[in-house]
Hints:
alpha/beta, Rossmann fold, disordered N terminus, signal
Amino acid sequence: MDDFFGGILFSLILVISYAVTAKGQNVTDSPSSSCDYPAIYNFGDSNSDTGGIAAAFFPMAAPCGETYFHRPVGRASDGRLIVDFIADDLGLPFLSPYLDSVGTNFQHGANFATGGATIRRPNESWFQTGVSPFPLDIQVEHYTQFKERSAYFYNQDKVESNKSRLPRPEDFSKALYTFDIGQNDLAAGFQKMSMEELRATIPDIIDQYATQLQGMYDRGARVFWIHNTGPIGCLPVSTVKVQNPVPGYLDEHGCIKSQNDIAKEFNKQLKEKLVQLREELSDAAITYVDMYSAKYGLISNAKKHGFEEPSKICCGIHGVDNDVWCGNKATVNGTEVYGGSCAKPSAIISWDGVHYTEGANRWIASHLVNGSLSDPPVPTTRACHRQI
């Protein structure tokens, strides 16, 4: 008899749980079932830009893209990015950049990320600061236009073959929305502010981030996969310039401790804000993804995971006084030098001093998509389930 009533109680719990979670169109009937995402829409900076900034301004130069694509394809790497591996894990094609008009296919999503993008709009013109003229609010506006115009043309066109490059209007609410942005807000602050001043700006950065996430929810987005920012203090382009540091300036792995402390504070406040948004956005499934831990875990145990010293840079030449960026030529001490790539990119973590190699991106992605570094701890394949 106890088993009988226990079974009824368990069934009632399942029914109630489903009734609560099924409010969002994207939510499936079982927390253990995989989500059938028809598309991915990505927002961010160069860590996930698959060609947006290159299409808008100047294309990437060789040897970018040499490992996987065998040509430059707008990615700041020798090959695939983390967002590419996420798409592959979900059985979806790589994302076409929204700003690219040639050879694009948006049936399974679009990428609004651009290299140099920030959450807050830069105070100065983009060519003075080196950041993108497409900050997060502009990316959200691009998405809004894309959603409205693609739906219009999809519904107007009676020829099925003409619709093959456009998303179905009903798929927007079922898609996965990924975000990887914030690093450039901190990087710009390091150049212009004291650590105390920069720390004081973080709440405003996070509030503006939350405003855009709320805006995406208002536009129908329901499944959010949000990366925190990585250990910016470990980027070799900065650490290579450190000479005779005072005790405590670098951590035990050669990273600039104060910069990583700022990144961790940003991540702490971002996580707190997402907890708040889960309460306010009743139909949203929001996953906070600890990119910082994944990247720092790789950097702090590089040799254990088959990589060389994490301070090494594969493409380009960087020193205390000189920078020859990947694929560029420059005159150093009267001699013309070329910033070419290393012999074995797969053994190096940093591609160009700022971005990661395909090998590193693959390793990092494998530790993100399984959900082990997420809050709640769900893989991308089941991130559509709202956690109650």
